[in-house]
């Protein structure tokens, strides 16, 4: 059954919601209805690259990886997303540049690519 795209979910993501799929030789775990991994432990850098193809206008560069790696490390230690100011200070990426790196925002861009679980992000107000 083909799902219809809706708010924040591309047509391609809607095709794969709730299923495991293979993209370019990379196994991607299930996605929820917003395109987030349902099994964050299945995240790899290849998975991040595949997700980024749907979220970012370009490819992942060094500054993207600084943010993604910091988000993952912080989340693994505290089971939370770091405050934006802390993220910027620790990665050397200012807020304006962060918005350019992840035009869809920290939650719908960086956190999604980093494989953080959507349930852990609910209620957070980030750019």
Description:
This protein is mainly α. The protein has one domain (11-116): DsrC protein, C-terminal domain (Arc Repressor Mutant, subunit A, Orthogonal Bundle). It is 48% helix and 5% strand. It contains 7 helices and 2 strands. The chain has helices at 11-16, 45-55, 62-78, 84-91, 95-101, 106-113, 118-121, and strands spanning 21-23, 26-28. Strands 1-2 form a two-stranded antiparallel sheet. The longest helix has 17 residues, at 62-78. The termini are far apart. The model is unreliable at 1-9 and 13-17 (pLDDT under 50).
Proportion of strand residues:
under 5%
Instruction: Report the count of strand segments.
Output: 2
Broad structural category:
mainly alpha
Number of helices: 7
The helix content, as a percent range, equals 40-55%
How many domains comprise the coordinates? 1
Provide the spatial order of strands within the biggest beta sheet.
1-2
Distance between the termini: 34 Å
């Amino acid at each position: 059954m083909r799902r219809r795209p809706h708010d924040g979910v591309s047509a391609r993501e809607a095709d794969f919601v709730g299923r495991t799929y293979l993209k370019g030789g990379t196994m991607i775990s299930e996605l929820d209805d917003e395109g987030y991994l349902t099994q964050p432990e299945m995240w790899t850098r290849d998975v991040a690259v595949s997700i980024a193809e749907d979220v970012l206008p370009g490819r992942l560069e060094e500054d993207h990886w600084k943010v993604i790696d910091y988000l993952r490390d912080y989340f693994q230690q505290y089971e939370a997303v770091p405050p934006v100011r802390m993220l910027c200070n620790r990665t050397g990426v200012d807020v304006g540049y962060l918005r350019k790196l992840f035009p869809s925002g920290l939650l719908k861009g960086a956190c999604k690519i980093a494989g953080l679980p959507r349930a852990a992000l609910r209620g957070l107000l980030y750019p």
